[in-house]
Specification:
23% strand, alpha/beta, 14 strands, 30% helix
C-alpha cells in the first residue's frame, strides 16, 4: 500500500467509508487529510492517516522519520457543535416559505438559534412567532443595524432574541407571493489587529479543558509512545475572533508566549479549518513559527 509513497503526501490507511464521511463533512471536508498533507510537507517524513477504527485509542496520525524517530498526532476541531449544525442547516436552506405570513422577512440569526423548541422545528415555530409580529404591527421596515431587536425591545423582541435571532426586517409580499423568511447567518468579526492576549487565554483554556473529549485526546497520545506527541487543532468560524483572525496571512506576527501544553502534548499545530489561509505551529526547540516558510519538500 505504501510502495507508491510520494514525499510530501500522507499515506491514507482509513477505510473507504471513513474517507467518504470525512469528505462530506459540512464544516471542513476531510480536515484530517488536510492535516496529513501539512505534516507531510513540513516533516518530509512518512505520515500515515492510521486510525481505521479497528483498534481503540489509536491516534489519528503516525509520523515515521527517516532517522528512526516516530511521532503521533491527534486531530480535532475547536468547534461549537450546535453553531456548526445551525450553519450547516441554514446554509443549505437559506429561505423558508411561510404561507401564514403576509410579508417577506429577513432574520439575522446567531449560533444559538434554536432549530427546535418545545418539540417544534424552526420551520414551525418561527412563522408563528413572526405572525405575532405582523399582528402587533412590529414590522421592522427600517432597520438601523443588524441587532435592532436589542434597540427596540419588547415582549416579542425579547422572545425572538431568546430564540437566537438578533435582527429582523420585512417588506410586504408581492401580489401572488406567499410570505417567507430569509436567513442571514451571524458573522464573526473583531479588531483588525491581532490581539494576542485573548488568543492565549482561549488557547490555554482550550488545551487544558477538563472535558471527556480532551481527556480522550490526551489518553490516545500518552498511550501511543513515540518521540513526539502532536496536538493539531482546527480553528473554525465558531472559534473566538482572536484565534480565527490569527490564522490569516494579514496577521503577520507570531504569538508572543509559549502555549501551556498538558504534559501529554509535546508539539502544537493550529490550522484554519474554515475560510483561513494560515497555519501556526509550536515546537519546543523553536517556539512559534509558520510551517509554510520551512517546507521540507520544497
Amino acid at each position: 500500500m505504501t510502495d507508491d509513497w510520494q514525499r510530501g503526501y500522507p499515506i491514507d490507511l482509513r477505510t473507504p467509508q471513513q474517507r467518504e464521511r470525512a469528505f462530506t463533512d459540512h464544516v471542513s471536508p476531510d480536515f484530517e487529510q488536510v492535516v496529513g498533507r501539512v505534516l507531510a510537507r513540513f516533516t518530509g517524513a512518512r505520515v500515515y492517516l492510521q486510525d481505521d477504527n479497528r483498534k481503540q485509542k489509536t491516534p489519528d496520525i503516525r509520523i515515521d522519520y527517516d532517522d528512526g524517530r516516530s511521532g503521533y498526532a491527534e486531530v480535532w476541531m475547536a468547534l461549537d457543535r450546535h453553531h456548526a449544525e445551525v450553519a450547516g442547516i441554514l446554509s443549505r436552506r437559506p429561505n423558508l416559505a411561510a404561507p401564514i405570513l403576509a410579508r417577506n422577512w429577513t432574520a439575522n440569526v446567531t449560533g444559538s438559534f434554536r432549530l427546535k423548541h418545545e418539540g417544534r422545528r424552526y420551520t414551525e415555530w418561527l412563522p408563528d412567532l413572526l405572525a405575532h409580529f405582523e399582528a402587533a404591527g412590529q414590522l421592522y421596515e427600517y432597520v438601523p443595524r443588524p441587532d435592532n431587536l436589542s434597540v427596540h425591545p419588547g415582549p416579542l423582541a425579547d422572545e425572538a432574541r431568546d430564540m437566537g435571532i438578533r435582527g429582523l426586517s420585512s417588506r410586504p409580499a408581492d401580489d401572488g407571493e406567499v410570505g417567507s423568511v430569509q436567513f442571514i447567518l451571524w458573522e464573526i468579526g473583531g479588531p483588525a489587529d491581532v490581539t494576542w492576549e485573548p488568543f492565549h487565554d482561549w488557547l490555554d483554556d482550550h488545551l487544558n479543558a477538563d472535558s471527556a473529549h480532551m481527556r480522550g485526546n490526551k489518553e490516545k497520545l500518552a498511550g501511543a509512545g513515540g518521540d513526539e506527541s502532536h496536538a493539531v487543532v482546527g480553528v473554525t468560524m465558531t472559534s473566538p475572533w482572536a484565534a480565527f483572525h490569527a490564522l490569516h496571512f494579514d496577521a503577520d506576527t507570531l504569538p508572543p508566549l509559549p502555549p501551556k501544553l498538558p504534559e501529554e502534548f509535546t508539539h502544537l499545530w493550529l490550522i484554519g479549518a474554515q475560510a483561513s489561509d494560515r497555519c501556526l505551529a509550536w515546537y519546543p526547540d523553536r517556539g512559534w513559527f509558520e510551517p509554510h516558510r520551512a517546507w521540507a519538500t520544497d
